[in-house]
Amino acid sequence: MLIYSYYILPLGVFVFALVQAIAITRLFSTAFKEVENLSAELLYTNKHQQEIILDRTSMLNAQAGELMRSNKIKDKVFSIIAHDLRTPINSLGTLLHWVAEDDLSLEDTKKSLASIGKNVETLNLTLENLLNWSLNQLNDVKSESELIDLRTPLQEIAELFKVPFEEKSVHFQSFLTTRAAVYMDKNHLNLLLRNLISNALKFSNIGGTIEVAAINYEHNYTLVSIKDNGVGMNEAAMAKVFSTEEHLTTYGTNNEKGTGLGLLLCKEYIEKSSGKIWIESEIGKGTIVFFTLPNFPI
Length: 298
Hints:
alpha+beta
């Protein structure tokens, strides 16, 4: 037994040591793999943390840009209300007070009522432009485009401006003798034409002429031109008329005042309908406003 134990004991110790070595090796291997996994997870987290930070930074920048845009819209609206609406409303109040108090003769009352009617129409167009432009900036404008013959809204607008045309002795002529179809929201088209013809009338001299024409353009579009032979504008003014950064308010030949919103609104409506608008003008010779609109959905 002693001899047997003498030989077996070292073997047992060896086996025990071998088992322990294998167990410790497995423990080290498992621990090493866990460290590798944790290191990989940490790298993944750090990488995605940078992406998350970049995404959040981008989102904050977008929100800051939207806030700045909203503030610009608010400032422009308040500026128009403060400067371009208050004065004609005060004038209306004064005229109505005089009429109510019988401080005017019959002839002066008639003139005052004519002036009131003109101011009301101007205020109506200004308020409509202001409302539509504000909604347009907030992306809340819904449109239902349809195929429209330009001759119909032009006839309606010619009737609407009949009295102002007569007051300035301005001759309005439409060269649309055949059907000129455009694909656009009816309300947007009406407001577009009202603004452009109102501008042409505003800057026309007494006895001037306003001409409207339309031709086929690049097969899929209609090119419309509204031409007057009024005061015209220089390059600097033309660069500002479609700018959202600058508030351009100009006076007409009879001291008519505008807000500068009309052309901005026209540009936005036309571009939303896949069209374009541009101006050609020369001081003392008049202005031509060109715009294109598609003949079908694009």
